[in-house]
Amino acid sequence: MKKYTFLFLLAGFLSLQAGAQSIAPTGYHPRGKSQQAIFTASLPVGVFGDSHLPGFGLAYSWSNHRFGDSVNAHKIIGFTAQAGLDYYIGKKVTTAGYGFRYNNYFYVHAMPGIIYNPSPKTNISLLAGPALGIYKESSSLGLGVSLSGAYHFNDRMSLGPVALYRKHAEVDALWAAGLRLSYVW
């Protein structure tokens, strides 16, 4: 009797294991694009707005099938990375009756981050990483943060808001808000 019970249990476990393995493919095929080029027009705000005029930026961003108008992300949050540059034009101001011109500000950044797709046509990304600020003839390494959203109005182009934050040691934080236009492929 013990012999038959053992063989019955062994056959049952083998049949469960064989039935648990799927022969059919999973059916998940990502549809979004992975690369995008970004043009940003931004307006400095706060203390930074007192010294500089609106600027522009160019960037390249990568994420695994998270860009485009038909994203079907398998996970809620994905990884993204961005590298680019920003340029702000210095203002001419009058201080104590004398004219003074602020120099232009140039930024280079490389930031990893996260991306979320609330719908197939939209995404929200939060990036943070090193930012190199170049002002006059000096450069300073600081922290850069970017929060942006995008709505894809066709299969290749998107438009959305962006908030930029730059912080260097011993100086006020530099804030900018703007609009970004991107092209995906």
Short structural description:
The chain is mainly beta and 185 residues long.
What report would you give on this structure?
The protein has 185 residues and is mainly β. It contains two helices and ten strands; from the N terminus they run αβαβββββββββ. Strands 1-2-3-6-7-8-9-10 form an eight-stranded antiparallel beta barrel. The protein has a two-stranded antiparallel sheet with strand order 4-5. β9 (157-167) and β10 (174-184) form a beta hairpin. The mean pLDDT is 88.
Strand content: over 45%
> Which regions contain 5 or more consecutive residues with pLDDT less than 50?
none
Listing every helix as H and every strand as E from the N terminus to the C terminus, the arrangement reads HEHEEEEEEEEE
Radius of gyration: 26 Å
Strand count, sense and barrel status of the largest sheet are:
8 strands, antiparallel, barrel
Q: Compute the separation of the termini in Å.
A: 67 Å
The total count of strands amounts to 10
Helix content: 10-25%
Mean pLDDT: 88
Task: Give structural attributes.
eight-stranded antiparallel β-barrel, two-stranded antiparallel sheet, 185 residues, elongated, 10 strands, mainly beta
Topology, element by element:
Layout: H1 2-20, E1 33-45, H2 47-51, E2 52-67, E3 77-90, E4 92-95, E5 98-101, E6 105-119, E7 122-135, E8 138-152, E9 157-167, E10 174-184
Antiparallel strand pairs: 1-2, 1-10, 2-3, 3-6, 4-5, 6-7, 7-8, 8-9, 9-10
